[in-house]
Structure formats: structure tokens, C-alpha cells
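hey all, quick one before standup. I had two proteins in the batch that finished overnight and I want to keep them in one place so we stop losing track of which output belongs to which input. First protein below, input sequence then C-alpha cells straight from the run.
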Amino acid sequence: GSGEILDASNWRAMGDEDNYRLLLPSAAYPAERYGPPFDYSRGARGDSAVAIAYTPAYSQGAMGDADAVYYPAIINYKPGDRIWSVMGVTPPAEDPGPGPGSEPRPGEACYESCVSVPVPAGVYDAWKAAYDVWKPKYDAYIAALLALNDKITAFNNNVNSRSYREWTIYDGTEQITRTVVTKSDPGMITS
């Protein structure tokens, strides 16, 4: 139960449990390829059939505010996950991994007065070289995740439009009886 989605052709799988959503068939998203079950989905789905691929980082509250909360980006799928083929999206060549960190910035040394301390040339050059390699891979990865997001959103909208939380199923057996003469006695003539 727990709101799980069932294919309409497999409604008997729910048994006596009543907490299911019934999904009607679709020509655009055949069950043989897309499910249910949606076992290729990863991450928190909420009320959706399939979890979104990428949620960008964001923060709540004013910057510098003690109550400000930063939420990092969420990436639910890796390049080798089955969802890419199910949704028909070309996966990125590779996961770029973590970036080289933030750009080195000059510091300050303060005693009676402050003096700017420049970033050593070698430190900045090493960071820039690593960033120049990482950034195009990261951009390609995010572009692929956004394309996957679009496909997942369209799919989830379609699933929501053809799923039902309440329905009635009439399951019966039809019995037809006919009287058939299989043997009879010859007729008798009386006068």
C-alpha cells in the first residue's frame, strides 16, 4: 500500500490492501518500458512517480542572518543509472566530481593596520588549471540532468493525469446455463 502505483492490468496485486493508486494505460508511456513499478527512480519522490534528477542549491533567509540555511544541490542519478535509457536521454560522459573549490582570494594581515596579502601565483595558476578542466564537464553534467528533469516532469504529469486514488472494481464470473438434449426416447404414436 502506502500510495504505491499499480498498473491497471495488475490490479489483483493489491490483494486486500486499499491504499494504492491505479494507473490507466498510456500509448505515450507504455508500462513495459516506464512501469509501474518505477524501480529505476532514486531519491525522495514525494507524491510523484519518479524523483526529479536535479535540484539546484538554494538558501533560505538573508545572507549574514544567523537563521539563514543553505541547502546544497541534490543530484539523484549517476551516468550509469537505468533512468537515462528509460526516459530516452543521453547520459553525460562522466560525473565531474567535486570542483576545485572556490577561487583563491587575497587575504589581509592586520596588526596596527591591515595589509593586503596577495595569492601566490602558483596557487592561483593551479586552481585555474583545475577549474578549466572541471567546469566544462560540470556544465555538461548539469545540462544532461536538466534535460532528464524535463522528461521526468512530463512523465510525472502524465502519470498524475491518468492515476486514480479511488475506484470501484467489479470482479465477477459469468455463468451461462443452457438446456441441451443429449438423449431422447423415440416418439410414440397414439390414436
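OK second protein, same deal, sequence then C-alpha cells:
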Amino acid sequence: MYNYPKHLDLFYSHVSSIEPSILLLIFLIIFVVGIIFGRLSNTKKKSKVSIYDNKHYNFSSNKKRKKFEKKINHQKKNRVFYTIRKLFIMIICIFLIFIGFIVLFWAINNFFENGVYKVVFAFSFFVFMSNILSKLCTKTYDN
């Protein structure tokens, strides 16, 4: 066998004692929660006023100017919030990819004896997962 470091050997002994179907169930729950979180966090209202409209906007009163500046300040605060939220979603996506590949390799080794089935399952799972996660991770937050 292979000569693993002690902490990896301990990890493999814990993971190998778990049934592969339980690992798949855990992964599917995490994956679905990640998709739901990604879709819910991508819903935002678009502001009608752009920051760059300030140059081309003629104000008829001081009240309109203050209202416009208030919208711009609120929009700048939202931009920082959306950037932080996008980074958080990217971290969750990377975590889901990592967990997904661990579960994928254990499921392939335990469920499929034939090498052709292993390759087909791994390829189809990789395409499915990369498609879903790329839609989650590359969602743009335009203001």
C-alpha cells in the first residue's frame, strides 16, 4: 500500500468507515443548499440611476439634486456589499467543488467495478457540476 502521512491516514480511515451512499447524500444536500443560496443571493433590484448620469443630469431644484445624491450614495454602499457577497459565493463554490470531488472519487471506487463505467460517470458528473457551479460563480453584479 501507500505510505500516507499520519493525518491523512486518520482521515482515510474515518472516511472509509462511512457508507458511500451516505457520502453521496451529504454531498447532494450540500450541493442543493449551495444552488439555492446562489440563486437567492443573485436576486437583487437594479437601481434605475447610474453613478455616471451625474454629468448629464440637469436638476430643476435643489430637492431633486439631494434625492439624486442620496441614490448615488446608497448605490455605492450596495456595490461594496455585492462585492463581498460575490466573494462569499465564490468561496462556497470552491468548497462545494472540493467536497464534490472527494465524494465523487469515493463513489467511483466503491460503486463501479468496470473501468468504462467509472470514466463515463466521472466525465458526466464533472460536466454537470462544472456547468452548474460556473453559472453560480460567474454571476455578475452590475449596478
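Flagging for whoever picks this up: The first helix runs from residue 6 to 16. The mean pLDDT is 65.
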